[in-house]
Amino acid sequence: MHYQDALIEEIRASAAHLLAEDVGPGDITAQLIPDTQWASARVITREPAVLCGMAWVEELFRRLDVSVTLRWSAADGDPLEAGQCFLELEGPARSLLTGERAALNLLQSLSATATRTRHYATLLEGTGVRLLDTRKTLPGLRLAQKYAVTCGGGHNHRIGLYDAFLIKENHIAACGGIEAAVKAARRIASDLPVEVEVESFEELDQALAAGADIVMLDNFSLDDMREAVKRNAGRATLEASGNVDESTLRAIADTGVDCISSGALTKDIKAIDLSMRIVDLHDA
């Protein structure tokens, strides 16, 4: 399935799941409000952020109540300032309040990934090194967070276990060595990229000799990364992984590697502080 088609399916499935887990058989608190009551609401961010999640919120309210209208003043990937209103909603008060938490949960999580990625990408500016995500994503939000990474200026590593080979320590042991593992990968799917994770110079040399497309340098020191770049001499794409945070990112990039992958973009995020407030009530 094409990535864009898969993303559309995930948006629909996520919206349906969010409503099912939160609303269940019905929002009993919303029933306190007359069904003729309409409202306008504003969503603001209490802290600087990079917006992400518009399509999910649109789909959520489409499923909940098609009479709800949404007016965005920012788009996915746009920077937001603290206190900025970026979304106005209008429709039945019951529907706005029923969809509030599910919508904010999604926005605050995806915007957190986009915001963290933008911060890291900014630290890498001018180096030419690509910032990659990993498969360390929140359960059920794989494509959503992968999309959020691109909104923040990062790049996607493989989406799952099906679109690229990543031969790690246990694969190497089970296959009988790096050369055997790479050869097997070429036989299975010659059109897919083959990446090998290495932990030593000996393994690096073996991966290069085997013709790996990408070599992941797992927890190499800065000096060892520089040596790996020399040994590689442009034969394969070199990816640095391990001990990556905002304090080490630039130094790793300066070693000459081609890309840096970080699970922190998706798994160690802090939700953006968002708030929705009713600003007007009127009869339908």
Percentage of residues in helical conformation: 40-55%
What is the N-to-C succession of helices and strands? Answer: HEEHEEEHEHEHHEHEHEHEE
The gross shape turns out to be elongated
Strands, count: 12
Strand content: 15-25%
Number of helices: 9
> What are the low-pLDDT stretches, counting only 5+ consecutive residues below 50?
none
What is the average of the pLDDT values? 96
**Rg to the nearest angstrom?**
23 Å
Order of strands in the sheet with the most strands? Answer: 6-11-10-9-8-7
Q: Main β-sheet: number of strands, strand sense, barrel status?
A: 6 strands, parallel
Which secondary-structure class do the elements indicate?
A: alpha/beta
Distance between the termini: 43 Å
Layout of SSEs?
Layout: H1 3-23, E1 37-45, E2 49-50, H2 54-64, E3 69-72, E4 79-80, E5 85-92, H3 93-123, E6 130-132, H4 142-151, E7 165-167, H5 169-175, H6 178-188, E8 194-198, H7 201-210, E9 214-218, H8 222-232, E10 237-241, H9 249-253, E11 259-261, E12 274-283
Parallel strand pairs: 6-11, 7-8, 8-9, 9-10, 10-11
Antiparallel strand pairs: 1-5, 1-12, 2-4, 3-5
Helix pairs in contact: 1-2, 1-3, 2-3, 3-4, 5-6, 6-7, 7-8
Report on the architecture of this protein.
By secondary structure, the chain is α/β, with parallel strands linked by helices. The protein contains nine helices and twelve strands. The chain has helices at 3-23, 54-64, 93-123, 142-151, 169-175, 178-188, 201-210, 222-232, 249-253; strands at 37-45, 49-50, 69-72, 79-80, 85-92, 130-132, 165-167, 194-198, 214-218, 237-241, 259-261, 274-283. The strands form three sheets. It has a six-stranded parallel β-sheet with strand order 6-11-10-9-8-7. The protein has a four-stranded antiparallel β-sheet with strand order 3-5-1-12, covered by helices on one side. Helix 8 (222-232) links the parallel strand 9 (214-218) and strand 10 (237-241). Helix 1 (3-23) packs across helix 2 and helix 3 (93-123) packs across helix 4. The longest helix is centred in the middle third of the chain and has 31 residues, at 93-123. The chain is elongated, with a radius of gyration of 23 Å.
